[in-house]
Amino acid sequence: MKKRLKAEVEGPSEFEKTAVRVSYFSIIGNAILVIFKMFAGIVGHSAAMISDAVHSASDVLSSIIVIVGVRLSGREADSDHPYGHERMECVAAIILAVILAITGGGIGMSALESILNRDEGGVVVPGLLALIAAIVSIVTKEGMYRYTIHYARKLDSASLMASAWDHRSDAFSSIGALVGIAGARMGYPILEHIASIVICLFILKAALDIFREALDKMVDHSAGDELEQAIKKCAEEQPNVLGVDLIRTREFGSRVYVDIEIRADGSLTLMESHDIAQRVHDAIEHSFEKVKHIMVHVNPVDENGNAPSHDCTVDPDCDLPDHHHD
Fold first, then answer.
1. Are 297 and 260 in contact (CB under 8 A)?
2. Could you tell me if 152 and 164 are in contact, meaning their C-beta atoms sit under 8 angstroms apart?
């Protein structure tokens, strides 16, 4: 795999510049859509299109939060935050999820109220402009989703991933609006309000998915068996590594931290053990895109592959003669 663009090394990082550029693109695109869809909803007498416009308006705020999160996560480590500010991206994603949930809930409550209190005699059939706006929104938001998801995966950005799924949920909501508007024009006005409820469900589902993913990264979730097995294989391929005793991974924002214990000949000198640990460290770092911090522990073994015994009941201060490299 390619290494992630080096946010820590190259000063306003390429990661940060790209993420901000994508977010500005989203802000401009959504702002245009909000104006167009709100105008079409009001002029075309479409409650579903007005709901869809509100969803797009929340996307503008979401993109602003992404920019703030990316800026903060790109700050250098300091004495108060020795591991950096990577988790600020996850905080931004969680805020996005909350905004999405509030937006979706509001749309759903409004639609439900309209259904319960509807006056069939006073129903106004949505105009053609509202129908056109729904089609334009579907095409535009799907394009914005594909553009944003490309860079979200390339940069491994939680907040950009949240923003991308926000675009996709908006495209789905526009499909619901299209069905509702078309149904209302064919003589079934209640379909417009049902479409708004469907829009609400899509938004809530997207919010829940974003929240879960961000929360996993916030609580040091494992990077998964597939990556761990690949890292293990990479370590075992290095010269003089006799095996891997233990491997642990945890996601820290968009980074992955690795603790790995390898076996090596116990008769080697400290310098030789250090060199083995260095090779393992460098091989993992250069082979995996998301891995940024690696701690390598070297466990000495005898010619039979057994670790030497240490009776710590006799000497409580004794410790295994492991070597570490970070």
1. yes
2. yes
Average pLDDT of the chain?
77
Distance of alpha carbon 83 from alpha carbon 78, whole angstroms: 8
Q: Which residue shows structure tokens 């004794």?
A: 318
CA distance 83 to 295: 14
CA distance readout (Å), 275 to 23, 132, 269: 44, 66, 10
- pTM value surpassing 0.70: no
Distance CA 294, CA 261 (A): 11
Can you give the residue ranges of every domain in the chain?
14-218, 225-325
Which 3 state secondary structure label does DSSP give 242?
coil
- Assign 36 a pLDDT band (cuts: 50, 70, 90): very high
Q: What is the DSSP string of 132-166?
A: HHHHHHHHHHHHHHHHHHHHHHHHT-HHHHHHHHH
Cβ(84)–Cβ(72) below 8 Å: no
Angstrom distance (rounded) from CA 42 to CA 314: 83
- 22-25 contacts: CB < 8 A, separation 24 or more? 22/147, 22/148, 22/151, 22/160, 22/163, 23/63, 23/64, 23/66, 23/67, 23/70, 23/160, 23/163, 24/63, 24/67, 25/144, 25/147
pLDDT digits (tens, 9 = 90+) for 135-162: 999 999 999 999 999 988 887 777 788 7
Task: Tell me how far apart the alpha carbons of residues 183 and 46 are, in angstroms, rounded to a whole number.
Answer: 12
- Cβ–Cβ contacts within 10 Å for residue 21, how many? 12
Cβ atoms of 213 and 93 within 8 Å: the answer is yes
pLDDT tens, position by position, 106-141: 778 877 887 787 655 445 677 888 889 889 999 999
Q: For residue 21, what is the DSSP state? A: H
CATH code at 14-218 = 1.20.1510.10
CATH 3.30.70.1350 for the 225-325 domain, yes or no: yes
Q: Tell how strand 291-301 and strand 323-325 pair up.
A: antiparallel
